[in-house]
TrEMBL record:
Transmembrane segments: none annotated. It catalyses: sn-glycerol 3-phosphate + NAD(+) = dihydroxyacetone phosphate + NADH + H(+); sn-glycerol 3-phosphate + NADP(+) = dihydroxyacetone phosphate + NADPH + H(+). PANTHER family: GLYCEROL-3-PHOSPHATE DEHYDROGENASE, GLYCEROL-3-PHOSPHATE DEHYDROGENASE [NAD(+)] 2, CHLOROPLASTIC. Belongs to the NAD-dependent glycerol-3-phosphate dehydrogenase family. Gene3D superfamilies: N-(1-d-carboxylethyl)-l-norvaline Dehydrogenase, domain 2, NAD(P)-binding Rossmann-like Domain. NADPH binds at residues 11, 31, 103, 135, 250, 271. Its EC number is 1.1.1.94. It comes from Albidovulum sediminis. Pathway: Membrane lipid metabolism; glycerophospholipid metabolism. Residues 175-311 form the Glycerol-3-phosphate dehydrogenase NAD-dependent C-terminal domain. The gene is gpsA. This is Glycerol-3-phosphate dehydrogenase [NAD(P)+]. Keywords: Cytoplasm, Lipid biosynthesis, Lipid metabolism, NAD, NADP, Nucleotide-binding, Oxidoreductase, Phospholipid biosynthesis, Phospholipid metabolism.
């Protein structure tokens, strides 16, 4: 086994399916033994990705030691759990290629996924896989293009070759900061887009929000060392378009519920909620103007109502674009 996916959520499972269909033997580590047993017995992940069969070359287990011999580990874990997981298992993960498959900014440290990996497990090769993708599309074998970011060019090229399939096309960059921040910040804007539609403000307002949101994403990312062209690519603009326009996006659905004044399933991971708070704090420390992010952070915490947030954004001083 050369590749293992650590995390049995929808995205990790979909990646395992795609790689197995391409001829790889793939392991999936599930934190919950009952979940692992059910997946192994049924050949499906009905809890997270119902209706899709696992190829026979996919093995599922709750025993992490079963998979750490794999040279490439895809860390398909919630962003806010990544730091504690890598630190807890640093000795086991040492020397491997660790590819983060989560999007966000850590609340406690203000770091992105590759910085967390580098800090907690410096002997590992850190990379991130991000971009416009829904797990259901990948699992069904629909064409998908993603960004693979790794600061080490040769290691990144090797991972690109290893993880690409005929229908899962990976584009490579060394700009880990840009890929991380694009994937993280677009989730915040997707929540705002959901609020716009849920509150009945219309598609024209959503288009304006997406445009100003992208300008905000780019401003913050470039100020923090990212390249403008990375934000204009799959991991920035591409992912923003997908998640702001589809109800398949958990962040969009969460925002829609906020805008409509409805409840939302607390068991569903919404990375953009924590990222809004982390990004707002990081921008404040760095002197970067991020009004949409600040307002989403306030909405998530219940510090403002939707009408108050809309009024605050619409009453900002007029300026050049």
């Amino acid at each position: 086994m050369t590749v293992a996916v650590l995390g049995a959520g929808a995205f990790g499972t979909a990646l395992a399916i795609a790689l197995a269909r391409n001829g790889a033997e793939v392991g999936i580590w599930a934190r919950d033994p009952a979940h692992a047993a059910a997946m192994q017995a049924t050949g499906r992940n009905d809890r997270r990705l119902p209706g899709v069969e696992l190829p026979e070359t996919v093995t599922v287990s709750a025993d992490l030691a079963s998979f750490v011999a794999a040279r490439t580990l895809l860390l398909a874990l919630p962003m806010q759990q990544l730091d504690s997981f890598v630190r807890s298992h640093a000795a086991t993960l040492a020397g491997r290629s660790l590819v983060a498959c989560c999007k966000g900014i850590d609340l406690a440290t203000g770091r992105g996924p590759t910085a967390i990996i580098a800090s907690a497990c410096p002997s590992a090769t850190a990379a991130i896989l991000t971009g416009p993708s829904f797990a259901a599309d990948i699992a069904r074998g629909l064409p998908t293009a993603l960004t693979l970011a790794c600061a080490l060019e040769r290691a990144g090229a090797a991972l690109q070759s290893e993880l690409s399939t005929p229908v899962l096309r990976l584009y490579r960059t060394e700009d880990t900061a840009g890929a991380e921040l694009g994937g993280a910040l677009k989730n915040v804007i997707a929540i705002a887009a959901g609020v716009v539609i849920g509150a009945g403000l219309g598609d024209s307002a959503r288009a304006a929000l997406m445009t100003r949101g992208f300008a905000e994403m780019s401003r913050m990312a470039i100020a923090l060392g990212a390249r403008a062209e990375t934000l204009a690519g799959l991991s920035g603009f591409g992912d923003l378009v997908l998640t702001c326009t589809s109800a398949q996006s958990r962040n969009f659905r969460y925002g829609h519920a906020l805008g409509a004044g409805e409840g939302f399933d607390a068991s569903v991971t919404v990375e953009g909620a924590a990222t809004a708070e982390a990004a707002s704090a990081l921008a404040s420390r760095s002197g970067i103007d991020v009004p949409v992010t600040d307002m989403v952070a306030a909405l998530v915490r219940g510090r403002v109502s939707v009408p108050q947030a809309v009024e605050a954004l619409l009453s900002r001083p007029l300026k050049k674009e």
